[in-house]
Automatic annotation (TrEMBL):
PPIases accelerate the folding of proteins. It catalyzes the cis-trans isomerization of proline imidic peptide bonds in oligopeptides. The lineage of its organism: Bacteria, Candidatus Macinerneyibacteriota, Candidatus Mcinerneyibacteria, Candidatus Mcinerneyibacteriales, Candidatus Mcinerneyibacteriaceae. Its EC number is 5.2.1.8. Belongs to the cyclophilin-type PPIase family. GO terms for molecular function: peptidyl-prolyl cis-trans isomerase activity. It comes from the Bacteria. This is Peptidyl-prolyl cis-trans isomerase. It comes from Candidatus Mcinerneyibacterium aminivorans. Residues 17-177 form the PPIase cyclophilin-type domain. Gene3D superfamilies: Cyclophilin-like (2.40.100.10).
Length: 179
């Protein structure tokens, strides 16, 4: 009799959107601080009724704290960037968005539409640090691709312009974390 090894399953997240569901496996063993941060936002219903606010075809779709009126929600403190974890920004992976500062990620995340090698960790310099991958879409890439194909526009917001905004709101209705 052959015994199967017990397979440890990764925690998952179900993003329920008005365009369909996206199921993501998280990698706490590779990005423990990032997964803990993401879970904190989920547990506080932070992402509910926010939108995918940035769509760049053949690159990424981004969400994580923008309301329908394009106002930014108040976030927690930035976290340490774990992009040096060996994971690459391949198609279907989820990663943290950040500013030009290495350790500036808060709530915003993106799903890669292709292997975005230029976003991968190369070295510990400002330009080479990369963007932390912390999970991967395991169901719902058709939904991701449907979102990615939406028409976008540049929207004037207060005294500045916001580009790559989908003309149709892609609303995150609920996010469910499962151990």
């Amino acid at each position: 009799m052959i015994q199967k090894k017990n397979k440890v399953e990764n925690p998952t997240v179900l993003l329920k959107t008005n365009m369909g569901n996206i199921k993501i496996a998280l990698y706490p063993e590779k990005a423990p601080k990032t997964v803990k941060n993401f879970k904190k936002y989920i547990n506080n219903d932070f992402y509910d009724n926010t939108i995918f606010h940035r769509i760049i075809p053949n690159f990424v779709i981004q969400a994580g704290g923008i309301k329908k009126n394009l106002d930014q929600k108040q976030t927690y403190k930035p976290i340490e960037n774990e992009a040096d974890n060996g994971l690459e920004n391949k198609r279907g992976t989820i990663a943290m968005a950040r500013t030009d500062k290495i350790d500036s990620a808060t709530s915003h995340f993106f799903i890669n539409l292709k292997h975005n090698k230029r976003l991968d960790h190369k070295n510990k310099t400002k330009s080479g640090y990369g963007y932390c991958v912390f999970g991967k879409v395991i169901e719902g890439m058709k939904v991701v691709d449907k979102i990615a194909n939406l028409e976008t526009e540049t929207v004037k917001k207060d005294n500045y312009k916001v580009s790559d905004v989908p003309k149709k709101n892609v609303i995150i209705k609920d996010v469910i974390y499962k151990e």
